[in-house]
C-alpha cells in the first residue's frame, strides 16, 4: 500500500503503458470482435462521439430535407409539443447546442444591460460547487477568488483561453461548497475531486442562501445541474420525487425574484427532472445526448421568461405583430437549422409517447450492469454503488467514498480526462470501447452507441460486452493499485 495518495497516482502514471497493454489483451479474452472495436461504447451521450439516430428520427429529417417549409412552422410545433405536456404557462425554444442554450440564458437573464446611461454595474449568480461547473458555472468570474483557477489548466487553450472566453461582461459567479461534499485531491493530474455522494440538501441550501444575503446587492440568479443521482449530489428527494436541493434553490429564486437556470444537458424532457416541481425558470437540454435527437439544444421555461429569450433569437414575432417568426437577432449564431428542428420534433414525440419503453431500456441496462459488476473481485465489489436514472436514461456507478471505507481505489479527476490520464477512460479506448464520463469517483453509462438497433431497442450482447470490458478494466486498475 502507498504511504500517501499522490504516491499511488505517481505509480499508476508509470504503469500506464502496462495497464493499457493489459486492457488490449483483455479485449481479446472477453471476446470483443475486431470489427466491433471503436464502433461501440458505454454511452451515446457525450459530445466526442454522438450516438446513432433511430430510424424514426432519421426518416423525419430526410422527409423534410427537400421540402420548402418555413422554420417557424417547426418551431411552433416544438412549442405545441412542450405545452401539451407542461401546460400553457411554459414555452420552448430550440437552439444549436445546449451550451448555446446556456449562453443565451445567462446573457439574457443574468448579465447586466449593455445599453443606457450611467456606469455599467456588475451582477452575480450563485451555483453549488458541483461537477461540470465549467458549463453552467463558466459564464462569470469566480467568487471568492480562491476559485479563480478552478478551470485553469484545461481551460488555457487558444481562443481567449478556452473556457475563460465565454465569461460574460460584468458577470461574476459565486461558488458555494456543498454541505457533506468532499473536495479531496486525487488523480494523476492531481486536482481536487468533486465527491458528492454525502451531500446534505438542506444544509447546502442554507449555505446558498447565506451567499445570497452576502451578495444581495448584485444578486441576479441561481444555477445548478438538473440531474437526479447520488453521485451528482442529488440523492435526497422531496415527497414528489424531485431532487430536494434543486427544489430548495428554486424556492430561493422565488424569494429573491431572480432566475433559476438549470443545466439538464444529459436529461430528458417529459421523463426526467420536471422544471415545474423544482421552480426552474428555464431548463436547458442537450437533445443529442439522452434524448436521441440530432445536435441541438432545447430550452423549456416559464412563458413570461421565454419571451426575452425568444426575442434575443429573433423568433418571438414580427415587428408588425405576430405570435412567432424566424428572424435574425443578437444570437443568430445559435440558429439550429431546419434538419435539427425536424429531428428534435421526432425525438420529442418519442419521449412523450413512449416513456415506458425508454424506462424499460434503462431497467434492462441496470440489470446488465448489476449482473456484470457482480463478477468483480469480492475485495473491491462492495465499493461500487449502482443506481439508475430515468432523467438521464443512464446507470450510475459511484465509488466516491471508497477511501473512507478503507479501499483506496483510484479516483480520477476532470483534469485527468482532459490530460488523457484518466485510466478508466483511456483504458476502455484501448479495448475498442468508446469511453464515457468516468471521473470524480462516478461513472455514467447509457445506451445509443452501437448498443441499440435502428428502433432504439437495446442490443443485449453488445451492451453486455461494453459493461464487461469496463469491469475487467476496473480489475486491472485495482491490481496496479495493489488492492487485489
Structure description:
The protein is of the alpha/beta class and 484 residues long. It folds into two domains: 5-52 and 355-480, Aspartate Aminotransferase, domain 1, CATH 3.90.1150; 55-353, Aspartate Aminotransferase, domain 2 (3-Layer(aba) Sandwich), CATH 3.40.640. Helix content is 39%, strand content 15%. The chain contains 16 helices and 18 strands. It has helices spanning 5-29, 55-64, 71-86, 98-109, 133-136, 152-155, 158-161, 201-214, 244-256, 275-278, 303-313, 338-353, 355-373, 414-419, 423-431, 460-480, and strands at 40-41, 45-46, 49-50, 90-95, 123-128, 141-143, 171-176, 185-186, 191-192, 219-225, 260-263, 282-286, 297-302, 385-389, 394-398, 433-434, 438-439, 442-446. The strands form five sheets. It has an eight-stranded mixed beta sheet with strand order 4-13-12-11-10-5-7-6. Strands 14-15-18-17 form a four-stranded antiparallel beta sheet. A two-stranded parallel sheet has the order 1-16. Strand 10 (219-225), helix 9 (244-256) and strand 11 (260-263) form a beta-alpha-beta unit. Helix 8 (201-214) runs parallel beside helix 9 (244-256). The radius of gyration is 22 Å and the shape is globular. The chain starts with a helix and ends with a helix.
Please report the number of helical segments: 16
Q: In the CATH classification, which architecture of the largest domain applies? A: 3-Layer(aba) Sandwich
Number of strands: 18
Amino-to-carboxy terminus distance? 11 Å
The CATH topology of the largest domain, please? Aspartate Aminotransferase, domain 2
- What is the number of domains? 2
CATH class of the largest domain: Alpha Beta
State the helicity in percent bands: 25-40%
The biggest sheet amounts to: 8 strands, mixed
How much strand content do the residues show? Answer: 5-15%
Within CATH, the superfamily of the largest domain carries the name Type I PLP-dependent aspartate aminotransferase-like (Major domain)
| Rg computed from alpha carbons, rounded to a whole number of angstroms | 22 Å
| Widest β-sheet, arrangement of strands | 4-13-12-11-10-5-7-6
Average residue pLDDT: 95
Q: Which segments are poorly predicted (pLDDT under 50) over 5 or more consecutive residues?
A: none
Shape: globular
